[in-house]
Specification:
Elements (H helix, E strand, L loop, with lengths): L1 H7 L8 H12 L1 H8 L2 H7 L4 H8 L3 H13 L3 E4 L2 E4 L1 H6 L9 H9 L6 H10 L10 H7 L1 H13 L2 H4 L13 E5 L5 H9 L4 E6 L1 H13 L6 E5 L12 E5 L7 H14 L5 E7 L9 H13 L7 H11 L2 E7 L4 E7 L2
Length: 344
């Protein structure tokens, strides 16, 4: 029997690097979250430092320091020259609090809720088809009931929205639109970006009362109070104020298709003729064979919400069935795309 097994052995057709990549991702990427928590990036913003300097400043030994630093360098967050580590453009733009595009609050959210992406909780999310954040259940109901959770979540979402909010307004001609309704707008990041880029546009951030209070602090911080306001409402049950541009960012992936269809239909009924809807999302490719980022994003939604990532054709079909025309799918910033249509 052993002899038969030996004779059946053959060289594999491909090498085993993809198998290792799964393991390396599990251990490698958390190194960046650890570097962030240790405040490595603001340390190096002061000046470039040697390995010994970093060990002394962070009070960690050489072995763990070198492991974290090498991961960060290999992924482009640090550079190493003449024995000294320095920040790169990506870490300067996204990992320093003084940057207007600071991403770190979202990393904080991931660290605070590390149990959501544990193997055990993701397994439970898969086998029960239910989210596991905050111990399971509806995260948005939890935010209404526990204000501290809402604050941390909203700050996290704001930090991943600032950069993209300055890009999508430049991708189309919005000169005909005067009032944007930012549905489920959270911190108001997208409305703020639109106001900064489109001087003739006004915006309303529609969300529940406590979220609107947070949005008001951001609106004041960016000095756009004259054109960006908030509107307290339940997106599912309440009437929406008049607007000729409906904007949804990071919304459709939170919900299953039937709830996305409800929102699409409600937008169509609320908009006047010539009104535009925009969905700002991370999309699967048309065949839903990838890419990896939206596929992983769907896994993230397994842990957090009842939603999933969608493809451009899937969201386009929702808009078409609601009655929208001139539907387009446009690449936006980073992994994001816009799906948009007009009410005839």
């Amino acid at each position: 029997m052993a002899q038969d097994f030996f004779f059946n052995m053959q060289e594999p057709r491909v090498d085993d690097r993809p198998m290792w990549d799964v393991i390396f991702a599990v251990y490698g990427y958390p190194a960046l979250l650890l570097a962030h928590k240790l405040r490595l990036f603001p340390l190096l913003a002061e000046e470039s430092r040697t390995l010994t300097d970093i060990c002394n400043a962070l009070n960690i030994k050489r072995r763990p320091a070198e492991a974290i630093l090498t991961v960060a360098t290999s992924l482009g967050f640090l550079s190493l020259q003449d024995g000294r580590y320095s920040l790169t453009a990506i870490s300067e733009d996204y990992l320093l609090e003084k940057s207007p595009n600071y991403f770190g609050f979202f990393w904080d959210l991931m660290i605070d809720n590390y149990q959501v992406f544990s193997f055990q909780n993701l397994e439970k999310a898969i086998t029960t088809d239910s989210p596991q954040a905050y111990g399971g259940g509806d995260i948005f109901k939890s935010h209404e009931e526990q204000i501290e959770l809402l604050h941390r979540f909203t700050h996290g979402m704001h930090s991943i929205s600032q950069a993209s909010s300055l890009v999508w307004p430049t991708l189309m001609d919005f000169s005909r639109h005067r009032m944007m309704l930012d549905i489920g707008g959270g911190s108001g990041a997208q409305s703020i970006g639109a106001a900064l880029k489109l001087p003739d546009l006004h915006a309303l951030v529609l969300d529940f009362p406590e979220a609107c209070k947070i949005a008001q602090t951001y609106i004041a911080q960016y000095g756009v109070e004259d054109r960006v306001k908030t509107h307290e409402a339940n997106i599912w049950n309440d009437h929406w104020p008049t607007a000729d541009l409906h904007f949804y960012s990071h919304m459709y992936h939170d919900w299953p298709p039937e709830k996305c269809t409800f929102l699409t239909d409600k937008s169509f009924m609320s908009l006047e003729s010539g009104g535009r809807i925009i969905l700002h999302e991370i999309l699967y490719n048309d065949e839903k064979t990838g890419a990896f980022a939206p596929a992983a994003f769907s896994m993230m939604m397994m842990g957090w919400t009842e939603g999933e990532a969608y493809s451009g054709p899937e969201l386009s079909e929702m808009l078409k069935k609601a009655g929208f025309v001139d539907i387009q799918v446009l690449p936006a910033f980073g992994y994001y795309s816009l799906v948009t249509g007009i009410k005839p």
